[in-house]
Design brief:
globular; about 500 residues; 3-stranded antiparallel β-sheet; about 0% strand; mainly alpha; two-stranded antiparallel sheet
Length: about 500
């Protein structure tokens, strides 16, 4: 009898994958709890507004945090913890809300708002109409669509929502003689550059400005300039590649996949015939109005010297506004009550993970504050950066946010972690806090154009059938240019303000 074979084959080598944002953030919570046993406790004196006064740092008795218990309760405190008069944060306290439940609820509601709008089909029909009108002039689709998607990125942080458009846009561009990388780039870079140059994006600019204690309108001009310049650079970059591929298809980065891709991406009858009705146009108008109302509500017109009523809105008012507009859009779309609520809940569910990240990230600050090491870290940074000028400070902040954005790809999570420390540091050095917000969102936006931990990057490339390595080799010159442009603009802004 033949002995049984013991050859079970060579086991597949497991590839390392970076943990999710949730795991990374919770690990940081535990790390901060350990740090409260090692880092000296200290505090600054506070001014009349409750802000730390530079040069007043002094040691205080240590307050080490429990590694297990306090780490587990930190995300809960991060959502609805209350800060008492002694500066301690707990969900059993009486005092001022420290948790970010207002931000988390806003994110869930705006997710519902987007879900209802998408369910009406208005956005999809609008893109389809644009595609058909430019038939035969497809080259113009590249700058127009990149501008449209950048507008979505800069206003409401359009990212995951763009995945719905990949098949349609790629199919049209492939039919016009381009390749799938061109189609993916139009969406990925269009939305991504919009987020990089966020003007009123509530998920990036809004959250970061909130934790920095400044209105979302502060720094708007600089962010607008970054958006325009970077979008122009990105559009030229994509156009040059697209023109080269149309002249000579063999120059495509995915030329070896051309036959399969051409066969795969054919416009469906439904996508090619979707009609932009009058109701769709009305819905898109109301959709845009929702963001215009939000922008008006948060701008401090009185502080700007403009004779318009100042509403002094913040997250509660913005949340209520988007809730109202979600209902209005549902009614305009002739949704039944059950359909409207289902679309809203589904949309909110899509962004529930972002809301949870807010609580976990805010929990890091809770541990640091309760352990009284936040001011110590701030003091160390003050000493390290105290001799640099405003321009150098803004550039150092941008450079620092690059690796942080890789570890925490969630822009809202990164804002929650970083702003409570970085914003006061800026005020210490006489640097406007909006520069820190702009440096953060520019760095986060740049990293999310290519990092493999981004669901948008990996999901979009998968739909387009573009290998990640080829995309990375193709896009890195553009990334270097965008980083250089941002650094120059941040430095000039710091010198001129």
């Amino acid at each position: 009898m033949t002995a049984p074979s013991t050859d079970v084959g060579t086991p597949a080598r497991r590839r390392f994958t970076l943990p999710s944002a949730y795991t990374i953030l919770f690990a940081l919570i535990v790390l901060m709890a350990v740090a409260t046993w090692l880092v000296p406790a200290g505090a600054y004196d506070l001014d009349a507004d409750g802000n730390p006064v530079p040069g007043t740092y002094h040691p205080v008795p240590a307050s080490p945090q429990r590694i297990i218990v306090d780490s587990l309760t930190a995300p809960i405190n991060g959502l609805y913890g209350i800060e008492d008069t002694a500066g301690k944060i707990s969900y059993y306290n009486s005092g001022v809300l420290f948790g970010a439940i207002d931000v988390a609820l806003f994110i869930i509601v705006i997710g519902g708002f987007l879900g209802v709008t998408m369910r009406t089909g208005a956005i999809q029909a609008g893109i389809g109409q644009l595609v058909r009108r430019l038939h035969g002039r497809e080259r113009w689709m590249i700058p127009i669509l990149m501008a449209v998607f950048a507008l979505g990125g800069t206003t409401f942080g359009m990212a995951e929502e763009s995945l719905a458009f990949y098949s349609l846009v790629i199919a049209v561009l492939v039919a016009a003689g381009y390749d799938t990388l061109t189609g993916a780039a139009v969406l990925l870079l269009g939305c991504g550059i919009g987020v990089l140059g966020s003007t009123i994006n509530p998920f990036a600019t809004g959250i970061a400005s909130g934790f920095a204690g400044i209105p979302i309108s502060q720094g708007f001009l600089l962010r607008l300039i970054i958006l325009i310049v970077c979008l122009a650079v990105g559009t030229v970059f994509v156009l040059r590649y697209a023109d080269k591929v149309k002249r000579d298809p063999s120059t495509s980065a995915v030329y070896d996949m051309k036959a399969d891709n051409d066969a795969r991406f054919r416009l469906s009858d439904e996508a090619s015939t979707a009609e932009l009705t009058g109701r769709h146009k009305l819905i898109l108008t109301v959709f845009a109005l929702a963001f215009a109302v939000m922008m008006y509500g948060v701008i401090p017109w009185a502080d700007l010297g403009i004779p318009l009523p100042t509403l002094w809105w913040w997250f509660p008012e913005m949340t209520a506004s988007f809730l109202l507009f979600a209902v209005l859009i549902g009614l305009l779309g002739r949704m039944r009550e059950g359909e409207l609520t289902e679309a809203f809940v589904d949309g909110g569910r899509d962004l529930l993970g972002v809301a949870l990240i807010i609580g976990i990230a805010r929990g890091i600050t809770v541990i640091m504050n309760n352990g009284q090491i936040t001011d110590t870290v701030l003091h160390w940074a003050e000493v390290a950066l105290g001799d640099v000028g405003e321009a150098a400070f803004s550039i150092v902040m941008y450079t620092l946010f690059l690796p942080l954005s890789f570890l925490i790809p969630s822009s809202s999570g990164l804002a929650t972690v970083a702003m409570p420390i970085m914003a006061p540091l800026a005020s210490f050095l006489g640097v406007p806090q909006d520069l820190v917000v702009t440096a953060y969102q520019s760095a986060s936006g740049l990293m999310n154009l290519f990092i493999p931990t981004s669901a948008v990057v990996m999901g979009g490339l998968a739909i387009a059938r573009v290998p990640y390595g080829r995309y990375l080799r193709w896009v890195w010159p553009l990334l270097a240019i965008l980083a250089g442009v941002t650094v120059v603009l941040l430095g000039l802004a710091a010198l001129l303000i």
